[in-house]
Write a structure and sequence with these properties.
binds phycocyanobilin; mainly alpha; electron transport; single chain; Phycobilisome_asu/bsu; thylakoid; phycobilisome; elongated; transport
Length: 161
């Protein structure tokens, strides 16, 4: 897994150079947003369960997926879906803290689409639920932090689609 610092340093190292102006600017903006990132992560971790619950209510409840024959129907599958949304929220928060999406590629998206396809988990409904989490999270943490979290929620959605 990379973060905003290692990714800038690695690319300078490949060229055998000190950090140039744009690389320094990237680091500067990462450090400047450090407190915001930490504060955002602590608000999200204190409210994780309710973020997921509200997102499910907004996007999935009483839709075809929760009815008999739907992929969330039965307690076991409902619980698996909630657990997946917990994963997405937690890993999006890690990526936001790191300022880099590589943790999502390595630990979440790797093989996920194939797993979903083989189990018949509907990707469109999953994307809808992740977008709902993005909205619920933004209303909780505020516009700037919500926008930064949105980058990583969107990253998961495009990795699934
Ligand atoms: C940390 C990385 C990680 C991820 C991301 C992950 C996802 C993941 N979700 C799964 C299943 C599942 N995922 C869902 C999810 C849903 N069904 C719906 O209709 C909804 C739209 C959606 C929730 C938003 C369901 C219902 C299953 C169970 C499917 C089945 O067994 O029939 C499975 C198959 C194995 C299992 O049931 O546990 C995996 C591997 N596992 C991991 O270790």
């Amino acid at each position: 897994m990379q973060d905003a610092i290692t990714s800038v340093i690695n690319s300078a190292d490949v060229q055998g150079k000190y950090l140039d102006g744009p690389a320094m600017d990237k680091l500067k903006s990462y450090f400047q947003t450090g407190q915001l990132r930490v504060r955002t992560a602590s608000v999200i971790s204190a409210n994780g369960a309710s973020i997921v619950k509200e997102a499910v209510a907004k996007s999935l409840l009483y839709s075809d997926v929760t009815r008999p024959g739907g992929n969330m129907y039965t307690c076991r599958r409902y619980a698996a879906c909630i657990r997946d949304l917990d994963y997405y929220l937690r890993y999006a928060t890690y990526a936001m803290l790191a300022g880099d999406p590589s943790v999502l590629d390595e630990r979440v998206l790797n093989g996920l689409k194939e797993t979903y396809n083989s189990l018949g988990v509907p990707v469109a409904s999953t994307v809808k639920a992740i977008q709902a989490m993005k909205e619920v999270t933004a209303s909780l943490v505020g516009a700037d932090a919500g926008k930064e979290m949105g980058v990583y929620f969107d990253y998961i959605c495009s990795g699934l689609s």
